[in-house]
Predict the structure.
Amino acid sequence: MAHDLSTLAFGDEPQSAVSWPAVFAGAVASLAIAFVLVGLAAGFGMKIASPWPSSHPALTGFDPILGSWMIVVQVLSSALGGYLAGRLRTKWLNVHAHEVHFRDTAHGLLAWALSTVAGVVLVAMVLAAPPEMAPVAAGMDPAALRLAAERQAGIAAQFSLFMSIGLLLGAFVACVAAAIGGLRRDEMHATFWDQRRPSPRAPQL
């Protein structure tokens, strides 16, 4: 759509390039849907820790299926949070389309980062809870202890791998979803004004 340059106001933008309310809204929605999906996984019988602070997580039952579900949770929650961050952001005026696209993706990344940091804090609070004391086998074979330690190390490595993949995919999906939300926002904004623009009068014969 062409604009009359005489109507554009030159100078600094009257508003910040970051819409923090949209970022917070996306992050809260992302974190909430992640908790719901984790709760569903536990309800369907997956050996996953409950997301509530009263439980203490354990990695003894971690396997590739659970790791794949972790990736799905992060991708879906990041997509929702990123889309909301891009769709709810206030529309800027007098900004190039490429800059708008960059800012939308940045809002998705910020929403993902905020939800990730908040999730890490919540997990740290859960981990700080005292675990249930397991009975200690007196005189256990040192070889068995070594095998158990190696198994725990392997499970922890798998968990870190799946978690890292999920975080990277979540960041990418959040940026893409925010860009899509921004495009949809601008389309609806243009449609709103197009419907209210007076139609040209038909020439009289």
